[in-house]
Amino acid sequence: MAAGQPRVAIVGAGMSGLCMAAKLRQAGFDDLVVHESASEVGGTWRDNTYPGLSCDVPARFYSYSFAPHAGWSRNFAPGAEIQRYFVGASADLGLRGHIRFNSEIARAEWDGRRYRLRTSDGHTDHADVLVAATGVLREPRLPDIDGLSSFAGAAFHSARWDHSVTLRGKRIAVIGTGSTGVQLTSALAGVAKPLTLFQRTAQWVLPLPQLPYSPVSRAALRAVPGLNRLSYRSYQHLMELVFGHAAVEPGWQRTAVAEICRSYLRLAIRDAGVRAKLTPPDDPMCKRLIMSASFYPALRRRDVHLVTDSITRVEPGGVRTSDGRLHEVDVIVLATGFDAHAFLRPMELVGENGLTLADAWQSGPRGYRTVAVPGFPNFFTLIGPHSPIGNHSLIAIAETQADYVLGWLERIRSGSVSTVVPTAEATSEFNSALRSAMPSTVWTTGCDSWYLGADGVPELWPWTPAVHRRMLASPVLPHFQVN
Length: 483
Ligand code: NA7
Prior knowledge:
alpha/beta; 5-stranded parallel sheet; 13 helices; 21 strands; 16% strand; binds ligand NA7; FAD/NAD-binding_dom; NAD(P)/FAD-dependent oxidoreductase; FAD-bind_Monooxygenase_sf; FAD/NAD-bd_sf
């Protein structure tokens, strides 16, 4: 390719797509378009509006390092505040003019030189470089429960909250006890009369309290930007020191987190019968760790009922469990999680020689160091296969990946590179190393979770975030076919 501005298309204006766009703009890449299927930015933070939603990564760290925000109201930011942050950042960083809203890319095909894009309403576009920033928690997973559609009241998924439904005083069922179910239980306790929580598998809970930031501390961070940066780095350091290691290797971090969870359950739930129901069958962190200091107190209320008998079906009047009991309810909330393995789907991606991503990923999503896929030139993924997830900030991970992609784009702009694609050998070597590292992680200690792929192998990063940064510090040229 001759030196000049490559045209870059990003799919998705959620956290990672905005991150990539911001870095490209800052580096002077102006031939840039972000295709967003919805009418606003924010991705999962736009879609999730359920009561009690907050991020379980500390707010001072769950923000772009290049767009610090002094105004967080609490140490774990409420979802609505995070959404406002992304909308604000998209305007402040001059990105909105580059975003095509209501533009869902249905198909992208490599024609040997560039990608030809087609939206679901028939518009076409092209791009020299394509970046998929389609997110992880995008496709709600609806449970396969008999009779769900026969329910006479309101029933909806937590990520598609029906705000027209009145909650106060209603008999509400929450199905699922992941982070969402736990946050909903804390928020709806006392609102619902009663709240019935259906738990299939108990989860470990780390009691991190929600603490408000005082106006004085917010003013101090506004006045001295260095304080904000210091705060970001301190949280990053702490998160990496503890959670960065706890999940991926045995050591004091894993022992400490596990011990805190076990002691908290012992101290917070004094009723031995209830405690037995809330004791998970697996090790802390095998499923994604739940951060909440308000869940167990909510369960101690008389108007909150924990049901552990399995659901046999839903009937017009409520939820029937295996003990034969009908739990009569007015509203059912499905806090049953997401299809975290959808990645770009249902978008169709076609690479070299007609290879489709669906074919390439037949036995599971596999990429090169989380950012690229063999057979798909000039194509990059943000929060792609095996990105570090655990309890780390995905924003920090996306920034590392965006910087890496930017490195390739600089080469393309300078004319030294026209097309770049990772080799199949380097990718398979990387994936073999991943698999060999998995046994040290806590995710393989015997539980079912959205972390696991169809073959039972975790689709997560089995090393620390520091290793991820090191692997993406600069391209290893022999791992690529470059023209
Ligand atoms: P999760 O963490 O995937 O949790 C889903 C929950 O729903 C979990 O407790 C599941 O039980 C339960 N579930 C799923 N299907 C059913 C059926 N059919 N019957 C009963 N219970 C069911 O999703 P969340 O939305 O809470 O959190 C997703 C991520 O968002 C979270 O990790 C953070 O990253 C933010 P199971 O444990 O499978 O027995």
